[in-house]
Design brief:
This protein has eight helices and three strands; from the N terminus they run αααααααββαβ. The chain has 297 residues and is mostly helical. The chain has a three-stranded mixed beta sheet with strand order 1-2-3, with helices on one face. Helix 1 (2-27) runs antiparallel to helix 4 and helix 5 packs antiparallel against helix 6 (169-196).
Length: 297
C-alpha cells in the first residue's frame, strides 16, 4: 500500500510539472517555472525513495551482513543534495532576472500555483504517516512540504503582480524560496550524514552508558565504547568491559547478559559487541587499563 502511494505521487508530480512549465513559460514567471522544476525534482525524489525502499527490504547476505536498510539513507542523501543544487540554481536565475526584469502575467501564475498547491498538499498528506519513522521518505516528504510553501508564496506573488504590476517581486520571492529550501535540506542532511558516517546516535551519552556498565557487579572499568546507528530503527554499540582478575567464567557470562539488558532497556541499544578483559591483561589487543583511560580509547 505504501509503495502504491509513492507511485501515485510520482505520477501526479510529473503531470503537475508539465502543467506548471507550460503556464510558467506562457506567463513569463520565473517563480512558477522554479516551482515546476522543484516539482520535477519531487517526482525524482519520490522515485529514488521508492527504489531505496525496495532495495532496503533485501535480507542480509555475505556482502551486506547488516542488511540493505541503509540504501534508504543513500536515497535521502541524493534527494537532499539535489534540493540544495536546485536552490543554488534558483538564486542564480533570480539574480539574472533582477538585472533584466521580464513582464509577468500574474493571473496565470495564481491559477497554476493554486493547482500546484492542491497537488503538493495531497502528496504531502499521502507521505506524512510514512515519513514519521523513515528518513528516506521524510526527505521526499520534505520536498513536497517545501513545494506547498513555495506554491503559497507564488500565489501571493502572482496576485500582487496582477494588481500592482510589480514584476521584480517574482525573482525576489524566488530567492526567498531558494533559501528556505536550502535551510530545510541542510537540517536533514546533517542528520543523514551523521548516520552514514557512523556518528553517535543523537541523545546518547556515552559517559552515561559507561557509568551504567560500571555499576554492574565485578566490573572495574569500561573503555573502547563506540556507538552508531545501523539504520533509523537500530542502535549498535561495541565496547570493552574490564573485570577483576579473579572473576570466574560464570560471572563473566552473567556480566555480559546484564550489560546487554542494561543497554537495551536504558539506552535502546539492540546490537551489542562486548569484549571482556581481565584487569591484568597486557596483550596487544587487550592493553592494560589505566584509571585515566578514556571511554573511547
Amino acid at each position: 500500500m505504501s509503495d502504491g502511494r509513492l507511485v501515485g505521487a510520482v505520477f501526479i508530480n510529473v503531470l503537475l510539472t508539465v502543467v506548471e512549465l507550460v503556464a510558467g513559460v506562457f506567463a513569463g514567471s520565473l517563480a512558477l517555472i522554479a516551482d515546476a522544476v522543484h516539482n520535477l525534482t519531487d517526482a525524482a525524489s519520490l522515485a529514488v525513495a521508492l527504489a531505496a525502499r525496495k532495495i532496503g527490504r533485501r535480507v542480509a547476505d555475505e556482502q551486506f551482513t547488516y542488511g540493505y536498510r541503509r540504501a534508504e539513507l543513500v536515497g535521502a542523501l541524493i534527494n537532499l543534495t539535489t534540493l540544495l543544487v536546485i536552490a543554488f540554481f534558483l538564486v542564480v536565475e533570480s539574480i539574472e532576472r533582477l538585472l533584466d526584469p521580464q513582464p509577468v502575467m500574474g493571473i496565470w501564475v495564481v491559477i497554476a500555483a493554486s493547482v500546484a498547491l492542491v497537488v503538493d498538499l495531497g502528496t504531502a498528506g499521502l507521505l506524512w504517516r510514512m515519513s514519521e519513522d523513515n528518513m528516506n521518505v521524510r526527505a521526499a516528504w520534505l520536498h513536497n512540504l517545501t513545494d506547498a510553501a513555495a506554491s503559497l508564496a507564488v500565489i501571493a506573488t502572482g496576485a500582487i503582480i496582477a494588481v500592482y504590476d510589480i514584476a521584480l517581486l517574482d525573482p525576489i520571492v524566488t530567492v526567498a524560496l531558494a533559501f528556505w529550501m536550502a535551510y530545510m535540506a541542510l537540517g536533514m542532511l546533517k542528520r543523514t550524514a551523521t548516520m552514514l558516517m557512523d556518528g553517535t546516535p543523537p541523545g546518547l551519552d556515552l559517559h552515561a552508558v559507561a557509568d551504567a556498565l560500571m555499576a554492574l557487579p565485578a566490573v572495574e572499568l569500561v573503555h573502547h565504547l563506540h556507538a552508531r546507528e545501523i539504520d533509523e530503527g537500530r542502535r549498535a554499540l561495541e565496547g570493552h568491559i574490564v573485570v577483576a582478575d579473579d572473576t570466574d567464567a560464570a560471572t563473566m557470562i552473567a556480566v555480559c547478559k546484564q550489560a546487554r539488558e542494561v543497554l537495551r532497556a536504558s539506552f535502546d541499544i539492540t546490537h551489542t559487541t562486548l569484549q571482556l578483559e581481565l584487569a591484568s591483561d597486557e596483550r596487544g589487543d587487550c592493553p592494560l587499563i589505566a584509571e585515566a583511560a578514556g571511554i573511547m580509547d
